[in-house]
Amino acid sequence: ALLLFGSSTLIIGAFIVLFGAAHGAMTLVLPSMLAELYGVTHYGRISSINAIFFTLAGTAAPLLASLLYEGFGGYQSVVVLVVALALVSVVAIGMTRRLILLPRPDFAQ
């Protein structure tokens, strides 16, 4: 959302720092979330399936961004889409957090 406020050096620098921090935090949070949600018995399988979707999304994102850039004449539509998807993710994680409080099935059977 920072990039919606302009393209000064300060704003771009702040974006780079926050973006890097968020990606760094994900490397720590994601394994913990998967283990907490699904247990450690099938962690490897669940993590590898999750990695497939992350890889596909990371591969398709530049192409989608370029199509949006060409279609709408700028990156503002790309930034708006990314912000919207981030908000959807926050809601999904919030819903998941409530599900953690429910008893989880024992996958070890």
Question: What overall form do the CA principal axes indicate?
Answer: globular
What are the low-pLDDT stretches, counting only 5+ consecutive residues below 50? none
Strand tally: 0
Compute the CA-based radius of gyration. 17 Å
Largest sheet: none
**Helix-strand pattern, N to C?**
HHH
Helical proportion, percent range: over 70%
Averaged pLDDT, please?
81
Which structural class do the helices and strands define?
mainly alpha
Description:
With 109 residues, the chain is an all-alpha fold. Helices cover 78% and strands 0% of the residues. It is built from three helices and no strands. The longest helix has 30 residues, at 9-38. The protein is globular. It starts with 8 loop residues before the first helix and ends in a 9-residue tail after the last helix. The mean pLDDT is 81.
Key terms:
109 residues, mainly alpha
Describe the secondary-structure layout:
Layout: H1 9-38, H2 43-72, H3 76-100
Summarize the structure.
The chain contains 3 helices and no strands.
